[in-house]
Amino acid sequence: MTAETKDYTALLASIQAHETLHATAVKDSESLAKKISLGRLITFLSGVVVGSAGCTSDSTPMLGFAALLGLIFVGLVGWHARIIDKKRLRQARRDIYARHLERLADGWQDHPDDGSDHLEPGHPYARDIDLVGPASLFQRIDVSHTKQGAETLVQWLGGLRGDAPTIEARQDAVLELRDQESFREDLEAAAARAQGDAKLDPKGFLSFLRKEPYFRSRTLMKVLIHLSPVTVLSVYVLAELGHLPWDAAWAALGLQVILSMLSAGAAAEAFDLISARKGYLEAFRELLICVEKGQFQSQLLQGLQKRLLANNVPPTAYLKRLDRWASLSEMRKQFPLNLVANWLLLWDLHVLLRLELWIEDVGPDLEDAFAALGELEALASLATLAALEPATCRPVIAAADAPLQLADLAHPLLVFPSRVANDVALQGPKSALVVTGSNMAGKSTLLRAIGLNVAVGLAGGMVSASKAQIPWVRLRASMRAEDSLQEGSSYFHAELAKLRSVTSDAEESPRVLFLLDELLRGTNARARHLGARAILLHLLRRGASGLVATHDAALGALESHAEADVENVHFTDVMRGEEMTFDYRLRSGIVKTSNALYLLRQAGVDVEDVDMPPLAPGVPEEQTPS
Q1: Which residues neighbour 2 within 8 Å (Cβ) at sequence distance 6 or greater?
Q2: How many Cβ atoms sit within 10 Å of the Cβ of residue 506?
Q3: What does each C-alpha distance from 325 to 279, 300, 352 come to in angstroms?
Q4: Can you give 345-383 as a three-state secondary structure string?
Q5: Which distant-in-sequence residues (6+ apart) come within 8 Å of 362 by Cβ?
Q6: What is the DSSP letter of 570?
Q7: Main-chain dihedrals φ then ψ at residue 517, nearest 5 degrees
Q8: CB-based burial label for 241 (10 Å; 0-12, 13-18, 19+)
Q9: What gap in Å lies between CA 302 and CA 342, rounded to an integer?
Q10: What's the rounded Cα separation, in Å, for the pair 172 and 175?
Q11: What torsion, rounded to 10 degrees, do the Cα atoms 531, 536, 540, 545 define?
Q12: Which among 48, 73, 270, 339 is most buried, taking Cβ atoms within 10 Å?
């Protein structure tokens, strides 16, 4: 058993133990909740019986005992609510480790697939290398529960990387979060207060923060809502004492009722914006407080923590203040109590004023606080990849003209025990690897493994390799061209459009790292060869570097081309008797065999091994370009 296998086995056992622990806690909470629920029922019925008997017999002790049962019932209700809340959090923690177990196997392919929502159409490599979409890297590593978190992660992986110091700072943060398993668990579990599987979106709450304040242009109203209730009470007292007629008291109250009714719409609009997102606000509250309480060493994480402050006030303080006034706004649902409170005290206007004062103090900084929370979730996702991979390393991010070097490179979407690692080295500008090989031998998998690891490395994450140097490059790929008959686009034209995104700006800086798979499949063999050769030389002459996977062994002739540094490598199949197997090992040189006819025969197609007929008259013999 290798060291990596031991680490993987230990990791798997640890995650299974955590899931079992939390699953047991959930069952214990369910059992206790059922017992409390039964106790509530017994207490309530007992209170009704004892209270009825006490009223019938006019027995003070029985009425007192009924009151005691009522207090016990209220206590049980509160206890039951706390147990249910604790159960939900324990379920969230159990589900976290269940998802980790799926990430170690193939179950992650059923995880939410919303990464594509955060990239523009026609991205130059995201879908080609399985960065987003079905069975993608985003599906496997995403642990975000906010839209900002998912968007930030996708944008980093999609090329919005920042400068070199920014990448190094992210690497420090990812390594720290990788080792803070309990914090990552707390961060995910904190979002459990929100109902449903949708990402938390602060858009609704931010619309409340951006709402035009009712009191901004109504300075007189601020005075009236404080002066009017005092005036009504004073007039009432004076009328009661006989110093003023009762008509004056009723007139003062009527004016206050009119004032309340005229402003009811403004208060209701603000309260609706809060109430509609109540569950999300509670989840955001838990997330922000979780980050506030974190203990971090990296400068980036400490900086993100400071960005959660609003007007130099930490989340625990400013959210407690919001909770107080948001809770008081809920009185509007208590009819007729709310009606009386508004008529006598202008209750809703007082609450609205306090909420707007809170927005004035805190609101300008909250949008950045939500953005900082999203960045931290993106870092936690990259840290999850590093924590669940049995062999990752911190890549050296080198200058654009440096070589790409990946030792023991692995594909991060393949299950660890069955995947095969390879060494890949690509020299600086104007260098390429031409990868030939049998069908299903691993050519496309190698290109995607390189693409995913380069994307992760340049985003600030750890890569699936034992040692890595990644140059500062622009990743480009043409591996999947979508045929759209509805748009009148053939496969060939769709591929040309894709290739245009690879070749159009190849001369710009930093250099392009290209990944090309079976170029120009939509045309004949001669045009395919000449076109692929032209595309590769076009890129290399402009300083780009990369890999081309192809069945066209003649493309390997570029190895001797004076204008480029081209190396041939290949995968091959291994025949054991009548059985074809693959070892997925990268070898030097051009592949010497083809398994296409064998695979056709295995599919039930009888292929005769005969010489090809001569070309039609007038068609020149195909020449192998030099």
Answers
A1: none
A2: 18
A3: 16, 33, 8
A4: HCHHHHHHHHHHHHHHHHHHHHHHHHHHHHHHHHHHHHH
A5: 310, 311, 313, 318, 322
A6: E
A7: -120, 120
A8: exposed
A9: 45
A10: 5
A11: 160
A12: 270
Instruction: Report d(CA 84, CA 37) in Å as an integer.
Output: 11
Q: Tell me the pLDDT tens digit for each residue of 518-538.
A: 888 767 778 888 888 888 999
The percent of the chain in helix, strand and coil, each rounded to the nearest 5, is: 60, 10, 30
218-223: long-range contacts, CB 8 A cutoff, minimum separation 24: 221/263, 221/349, 222/353
User: CA-CA distance, 93 to 91, in Å (whole number)?
Assistant: 5
Map residue 576 onto helix, strand or coil: strand
Phi-psi region of 598 (alpha: psi -120 to 50; beta: other; left: phi over 0): alpha
Strand, coil or helix: 401: coil
Q: What is the pLDDT of residue 619?
A: 37
Query: How would you classify the pairing of strands 573-576 and 579-582?
Result: antiparallel
pLDDT for res 407:
95
- List the end-to-end C-alpha distance of the chain, in Å, as a whole number: 49
Judge whether 435 and 479 are in contact, CB under 8 Å: no
Q: Which range (285-299, 450-464, 549-563, 601-615) has the least confidence?
A: 601-615
Phi, psi of 406 (to 5 degrees): -135, 110
- Residues forming beta bridges with residue 467, ordered by sequence position: 407
Helix (H, G, I), strand (E, B) or coil at 84: helix
> Do residues 104 and 12 touch, judged by C-beta distance below 8 A?
yes
pLDDT in tens, 279-326: 667 788 889 999 999 999 999 999 999 999 988 889 888 888 888 877
Query: Are 553 and 569 spatial neighbours (Cβ–Cβ below 8 Å)?
Result: no
Q: At 255, which amino acid appears?
A: L
With a cut of 50, say whether residue 626 has pLDDT above it. no
- Sort strands 512-517 and 404-409 into parallel, antiparallel or unpaired: unpaired
Cα atoms in the Cβ-side hemisphere of radius 13 Å centred on 415: 12
Lowest mean pLDDT among 39-43, 350-354, 480-484, 558-562: 480-484
Q: What CA–CA distance (Å, rounded) separates 137 from 158?
A: 12
512 contacts 506 by C-beta, under 8 angstroms? yes
Spatial neighbors of 44 by CB under 8 A, at least 6 apart, are 73
- pLDDT tens digit string along 362-383? 888 888 999 999 999 999 999 9
pLDDT confidence of residue 174: 97
398 class by beta-carbon count within 10 Å (0-12 exposed, 13-18 middle, 19+ buried):
middle
Average pLDDT on 505-520 reads 88
Helices 347-388 and 337-345: angle between axes, nearest 10 degrees: 120
Q: Give the H or E element holding residue 513.
A: strand 512-517
Contact 193, 323 (CB under 8 A): no
φ, ψ (nearest 5 deg) of residue 505 = -120, 35
Express each pLDDT in 249-270 by its tens digit: 899 888 888 888 877 777 777 7
Distance CA 428, CA 333 (A): 68
Taking alpha carbons only, the member of 84, 186, 203 closest to residue 146 is: 203
Task: Give the pLDDT confidence of 113-146 residue by residue, as tens digits.
Answer: 887 788 888 889 999 999 998 889 999 999 999 9
Residue with tokens 């206590």: 75
Angle between helices 264-276 and 315-329 (to 10 degrees): 120
> Looking at the predicted structure, is the pLDDT value of residue 489 above 60?
no
